[in-house]
Amino acid sequence: MTNTDWTAETTGTGGYADVNGINLYYETYGTGRPMILLHGGLGSGEMFGPILPQLAAAHQVIAVDLQGHGRTADIDRPITLDAMAADIAALIDHLGLDHPDVVGYSLGGGVAMHVAANHPDKVRRMVMASAFLKTEAVYPDLRAQQGQVNAAAAAFMVDTPMYQLYQKVAPRPEDFPRLLDKVGAFMANEFDFTEKVRSLTVPTMVAGADADQVPPSEFMRIFELLDGGHRDGGWMGEGRPQGGHALAIVPGVTHYSLFSSPLFATMVLSFLDD
């Protein structure tokens, strides 16, 4: 088995929370103001291993394994952003967290957005990284590849970090094809989160790679819905978006390296600690 670069020497305290009908796994790192960290599709909290020391230097980081991912076993329901957001809201209550920040990447970015939109009273600030507004934003050739994600693809993924990590940590490693079926079904659904984004009242940073699964302009579209990009910011920042929202395009990375980028971590911390 090939080692991945998704892990680090930083060790956390792991635990399970029986919330919202699912036994949700999470690991806690560091101390300070709480930050919930949500991974991308087919991954787990280990994806953030290279930047966990940076994030946990002054924060209590709670890295969660979402439904059917990592150490969280799947349950009998589809994978949806609303359901997983409800899981995170229930986890916040279970852990007694006082308005944590929520930081999500890709699938986790969509979950973070839904936590902030559906449960705004539970969140202080939110970062949605590499999460998109509409289905059609994804490059057409990539969209075609995503349409082939299903259980039959498992045999072709044995050399990937996603498969290897799942085999290492999942409570039922044989469920990987089931996860592919569910993630494939999730990606096959058409979506448009325009109104969901417009409803956000939690200060939000929209982030993406400069070579992501969508053009950088797509992240600007989300920012524009949050009152960004409409006027000069002003000497004192008086023209910045109402609501404290921000935009970050991380240079020199892709969708597949953003989550482990120290520069991404720096931007996240700058926004959360502002």
Detailed description of the structure:
With 274 residues, the protein is α/β, with parallel strands linked by helices. It is 31% helix and 20% strand. The chain is built from nine helices and eight strands. The chain has an eight-stranded mixed beta sheet, sandwiched between helices. Strand 3, helix 1 and strand 4 (59-65) form a beta-alpha-beta unit. The protein is globular, with a radius of gyration of 18 Å. 45% of the residues are buried. The mean pLDDT is 95.
Q: What secondary-structure arrangement, pairings included, does this model have?
A:
Blueprint: E1 13-19, E2 22-29, E3 33-38, H1 52-55, E4 59-65, H2 81-95, E5 101-105, H3 107-118, E6 126-129, H4 140-146, H5 161-169, H6 176-188, H7 194-198, E7 204-211, H8 216-225, E8 246-254, H9 262-272
Parallel strand pairs: 3-4, 3-5, 5-6, 6-7, 7-8
Antiparallel strand pairs: 1-2, 2-4
Helix pairs in contact: 2-3
Question: Summary?
Answer:
By secondary structure, this protein is α/β, with parallel strands linked by helices.
